[in-house]
Amino acid sequence: MADDDTASLQNNPHDFGKLLHGCNHYRRRCKIRAPCCNQIFFCRHCHNESTSGLTNPKERHEIVRHDVKQVICAICNTEQQVAQISKEQFHCNDCGICRVGGGTKFFHCQKCGSCYDVTLRDNHACVENSTKNHCPICYEFLFDSIKGATIMNCGHTMHMDCYKEMISQNQYRCPICSKSVCRMSRTWQRLEHEIEATAMPEEYRYEIPILCNDCNNTSKASFHIIGHKCNHCKSYNTRRIGTVTNSLERQI
């Protein structure tokens, strides 16, 4: 298989050295010359990471991506003016920046203020300028991140990789608003069965006030060590908002 891949790259000159060059941010065959300091880096992120660590605060700076005029080929080291754009790279006029992944695979949501995968068109909850924030997991700024992002049911956005890692850790609440990030009906049914099969001792059979994280309504629920069900939307994504102090309420 490796030999076949090598032969394919050799047969197509446009693929020569493809995926063999680049940095942790991009796999590409050219570098940029930063007009601000005249240094060479694989990308603007590499430049910003390097200059942000300078010991002299006055020398710290970030590159203005639109000012980059010169690129250096990573294959032959030829320096030339910025020219041909990769087919997988596209410019979004509404975002004001270039993105990777192919223009036909993304759309710009005017309310959210960013580009998303076309599968999310008319299929997501909008939150104004939702990507003009940091990922709640890794805290990288989302708007100009090169990592793929996803929108949760509540409308908040995070990196897709961070979302998958969160789900793998059995965490199903949005780190920002605590709403359920996906459909939880099967999980609620399982909890229902577990609660029915686990009777609480007599001294713990009382009601407590709860707040539902999903519908934001308050109600009362029978205390149980496993969970408390919202009387409005039937969600178990709830939190206890008070204690029972009256002995009469304990007997109800």
Domain module tally: 3
Strands across the major sheet, in which order? 2-1-3-4
Q: Globular, elongated, flat, extended or rod-shaped: what is the shape?
A: elongated
The protein's oligomeric status is: single chain
Name the helix and strand elements from N-terminus to C-terminus, one letter apiece.
Answer: HEEHEEEEEEEEHHEEEH
Beta-strand percentage range: 15-25%
Radius of gyration: 26 Å
What level of helicity do the residues show?
10-25%
Number of helices: 5
The main sheet comes to: 4 strands, antiparallel
Number of strands: 13
Structural class: alpha+beta
Which stretches of 5+ consecutive residues score pLDDT under 50? 1-10, 246-252
How would you sum up this structure, described in words?
The protein is an alpha+beta fold and 252 residues long. The chain has 3 domains: 2-81, no CATH class; 89-168, no CATH class; 199-251, Rubrerythrin, domain 2 (Single Sheet), CATH 2.20.28.10. It is built from 5 helices and 13 strands. The strands form 5 sheets. It has a 4-stranded antiparallel sheet with strand order 2-1-3-4. The protein has a 3-stranded antiparallel sheet with strand order 12-11-13, with no helix packed on it. The radius of gyration is 26 Å and the shape is elongated. The relative contact order is 0.07.
